[in-house]
Design brief:
9% helix; globular; binds zinc ion; 3-stranded antiparallel beta sheet; mainly beta; two-stranded antiparallel sheet
Length: 94
Protein backbone atom coordinates (compact mmCIF):
# COMPACT_ATOMS: atom_id res chain seq x y z
CA UNK A 1 0.00 0.00 0.00
CA UNK A 2 1.29 3.40 -0.95
CA UNK A 3 0.46 6.19 1.40
CA UNK A 4 -0.36 9.51 -0.15
CA UNK A 5 1.38 12.09 2.00
CA UNK A 6 0.48 15.01 -0.22
CA UNK A 7 -2.02 17.24 1.51
CA UNK A 8 -4.63 18.17 -1.00
CA UNK A 9 -5.62 21.78 -1.08
CA UNK A 10 -8.72 23.47 -2.38
CA UNK A 11 -7.82 24.93 -5.79
CA UNK A 12 -9.78 28.07 -4.96
CA UNK A 13 -8.89 29.01 -1.40
CA UNK A 14 -6.04 26.69 -0.40
CA UNK A 15 -7.87 25.21 2.56
CA UNK A 16 -7.90 21.47 3.07
CA UNK A 17 -9.62 19.76 0.18
CA UNK A 18 -12.39 17.32 0.98
CA UNK A 19 -13.68 16.51 -2.50
CA UNK A 20 -11.93 15.70 -5.74
CA UNK A 21 -13.90 16.48 -8.85
CA UNK A 22 -13.19 16.05 -12.52
CA UNK A 23 -12.46 19.28 -14.32
CA UNK A 24 -15.09 20.44 -16.86
CA UNK A 25 -12.82 18.97 -19.47
CA UNK A 26 -9.83 16.75 -19.12
CA UNK A 27 -7.67 17.98 -21.93
CA UNK A 28 -6.72 21.28 -23.46
CA UNK A 29 -5.26 21.65 -26.92
CA UNK A 30 -2.42 24.13 -26.97
CA UNK A 31 -0.61 25.30 -30.05
CA UNK A 32 3.08 25.66 -29.36
CA UNK A 33 3.83 27.58 -32.53
CA UNK A 34 1.38 30.41 -33.38
CA UNK A 35 2.42 30.31 -37.03
CA UNK A 36 1.52 26.65 -37.40
CA UNK A 37 -2.11 26.00 -36.54
CA UNK A 38 -1.84 22.31 -37.39
CA UNK A 39 0.55 21.67 -34.55
CA UNK A 40 -0.82 21.47 -31.07
CA UNK A 41 -0.07 19.85 -27.76
CA UNK A 42 -2.75 18.23 -25.67
CA UNK A 43 -2.50 19.22 -22.05
CA UNK A 44 -4.01 16.80 -19.54
CA UNK A 45 -5.54 18.75 -16.70
CA UNK A 46 -5.32 17.50 -13.12
CA UNK A 47 -8.25 16.70 -10.88
CA UNK A 48 -9.70 19.63 -9.01
CA UNK A 49 -9.61 19.47 -5.25
CA UNK A 50 -12.22 21.51 -3.43
CA UNK A 51 -13.02 22.32 0.18
CA UNK A 52 -16.56 21.73 1.42
CA UNK A 53 -17.74 25.28 0.80
CA UNK A 54 -16.36 25.52 -2.71
CA UNK A 55 -17.57 22.05 -3.59
CA UNK A 56 -21.07 23.15 -2.62
CA UNK A 57 -20.76 26.33 -4.70
CA UNK A 58 -19.39 24.36 -7.63
CA UNK A 59 -22.20 21.81 -7.50
CA UNK A 60 -24.83 24.53 -7.30
CA UNK A 61 -23.13 26.29 -10.25
CA UNK A 62 -22.47 29.44 -8.25
CA UNK A 63 -18.78 28.88 -8.79
CA UNK A 64 -17.35 28.49 -12.28
CA UNK A 65 -13.84 27.14 -12.26
CA UNK A 66 -11.44 28.01 -15.05
CA UNK A 67 -7.85 27.35 -15.94
CA UNK A 68 -4.86 29.57 -16.62
CA UNK A 69 -2.50 27.91 -19.05
CA UNK A 70 0.30 30.42 -18.66
CA UNK A 71 3.51 28.65 -17.75
CA UNK A 72 3.67 30.63 -14.51
CA UNK A 73 0.27 29.38 -13.43
CA UNK A 74 -1.18 26.23 -14.96
CA UNK A 75 -3.74 25.79 -12.28
CA UNK A 76 -7.40 26.27 -11.60
CA UNK A 77 -9.12 29.41 -10.39
CA UNK A 78 -12.38 31.31 -10.50
CA UNK A 79 -13.36 32.24 -14.07
CA UNK A 80 -12.87 35.95 -14.66
CA UNK A 81 -10.61 36.45 -11.65
CA UNK A 82 -7.01 37.46 -12.30
CA UNK A 83 -4.46 34.67 -11.94
CA UNK A 84 -0.93 35.24 -10.59
CA UNK A 85 0.41 35.99 -14.10
CA UNK A 86 -2.17 38.73 -14.60
CA UNK A 87 -4.41 36.95 -17.11
CA UNK A 88 -7.90 35.91 -16.17
CA UNK A 89 -8.79 32.28 -15.64
CA UNK A 90 -10.59 31.03 -18.72
CA UNK A 91 -13.68 28.87 -18.67
CA UNK A 92 -13.19 25.26 -19.72
CA UNK A 93 -15.98 24.36 -22.09
CA UNK A 94 -16.96 20.75 -22.38
ZN1 LIG B 1 -12.12 26.39 -0.95
ZN1 LIG C 1 -2.00 32.88 -15.05
Amino acid sequence: MIENVVTRRCVICGHDGVMTVDPPRRTLARGTDPSDSSYSVTVVLPDMELCGDHYHDFRSKELVIGWCDDEKCRHFGVVGAPSPCGKEYLALKR
